[in-house]
Please model this.
Amino acid sequence: MGLIDGYFCQGIVYQSLGNYEQSINAYNQVIELDSTNILYYQLRGHVYFALKNYPKAIADITKAIELDPQDDSLYFQRKNYYSLMNQIELAIKDISKAIEIKPNNAQYYYDRADLKSNNLFKRWKDVDYLKQNLWGEKLIQDAKILLETPQMKQL
Model:
C-alpha cells in the first residue's frame, strides 16, 4: 500500500468513526500528494458538510467540478450544499447543469421543480421578479419533461 492509499484509508476510517478533524487532515495529505483525483475533494467535502462548514464543502466540490466538469453528480452534490445555505439561485443553476449533462435523470427534474416552487413561494409577492423569471412556465416545462422520463412512465 502506497502513501496515498494509506492516507486515503485513514481519511475514510476517521470519517466513518466521526473523527472529522483527523479525517480532514488525512484527506489534506492525500490531496497534497495527488491533487487531480476528484474523489479526494468529494470525500473531504462530505466531511466539511458533516461539520456544517458549507463554504468549505462547496469549495471542495467546486474544485472537483473543475477537474471533471462533465460529472453530473458533482453538480447535484453542490446543489444540495447551496440549497442548505439558502442560495437557491445557485442551487437551481447547478441542478440545471446536471440536467444538461444527464437529461434522462428524473430526480434532477423533480429537484429543480421543487427548488423553483419553493423559491417562488418565498417570493410570490415580488411580481417583477416573477415576470422576469417566468417561473410558472418554467415549472410547467420541467413537469412535462419529468412526466416523459422512462422512470415516470413506469409508474
